[in-house]
Caspase 3-like protein (Branchiostoma lanceolatum), 446 residues
Amino acid sequence: MDAQRSLHRQLFETINKEMDDDDFRSFRSIAQGKGLRPGEASKCNTPSDVLDKLQRKGKIKLGCYQALKDIFAEMEQEGLIEEVTKTERKLEEMGCEISDEIPQPYDNLKRQASFPGETAEEKRRRFRAQSSSSSLDSNPSFERQISPTAEQRRGSMTSYWQFDSSASARHPLRRQSSSRSLPRSPQSSFDDNDVTREELEEREDCYKQGRGYVLIINNFSKEREASENDVEGLSDFFKKIGYKVQPKKNLKKDEMMDALDMAKTEIQKTAKGKNKYSCFICIVSSHGDKEGVKSYDNQTVSIAELQVPFLGDSLKCMAGSPKMFIIQSCRGKQKQPGVDRADEEPGDEGQLDVSDVMSSATTPRDADVLVAYATTEGFQAFRRVGEGSWFLSKMRAVFNHKHQSDHLMDMLTEVNDRVSHRTAIGSKPAKQMPCQVSTFTKKFYF
């Protein structure tokens, strides 16, 4: 029994160490809907505090972690689910009974017992519905409360981050990905100032809705551990919303250019049919430098080379339609340090007042193009073993939860914010700042 309890405690310690600030806020928020009251959740300053509260209320206990796995599934943390599953396997080998039931909180036992004749499964469903009714709405300042930094929680934990320009030392503890399909959080209903999707079609400030074509190129897939997680997660998202997805991996430069040409050809073929594409998205995950991304034969492919086949004069059927290039790679060898925020001072901005600008029905060749970089020029981009890249993993999470309510630039702004709060722990803590270059002329909704 002591060995079982020791494994139970080790699981809690692992979860506490594995979570960064963003993970913790999500964990605390979802746990509030799984049995914790708003007041109880607001007093939790670390993942350990949340785990302890859930355990004290009887939601999780030795050998019974289903509530914990449900929370991690909503967080889309496959690595943490795998850690729980590994602990369950070890406990089972020691003779501990493993249950997938969710215990009833002690303060709800009386309410649960007031429905005689219910089956255990009916009680469980009813309790879930009751507990989920508790939401952040009752405590709107909850997410704004200050929590300890990830560095403070981890203490002296050794760094196990990797960056995409070269191999780095790995921490012995790795999040392992799971091939199982995880349940997704319920999707929010579309809300753009109470405008429906049908009404959105009539708006002149939005791109037309339709089916998109997505080309995903993942180079150095074995060397860049966990990059497959990014590809699979984004593929799942785009397939879910009805886009055509074409994944490729480990392409030499000429093969990359061929893949781009094949995408262009297919878009042209469907240009006049009912299945025509409304947008093009190219995602490249690879090593890189300030000149561009690396092909599998270690040649540089510039961002301009990726774009050329799809610009207005090369692919006229997509003129006026959005083209996106999402680049997950380093753009240099420097590690970006964190800096204290200073008060902003007003600057001198020149203004050009032109009253007789002539409008035109033509479109610039470079219009309607967006390039989303994982990091600013000159700096490294990071991956987490077992999870995937900071940039694409946060993008996947934001897209899944916000695509029905937010347009693309708003979602990318949230991705910027989430990634900016992460810190790579090592001899010198490092940050990462995604950025976008856009010539979009309208709002884009998936």
Remarks:
- The chain has two domains: 2-141+148-154, 161-167+191-336+364-438.
- The chain has 15 helices and twelve strands.
- Residues 105-114, 130-194, 341-360 have pLDDT under 50 and may be disordered.
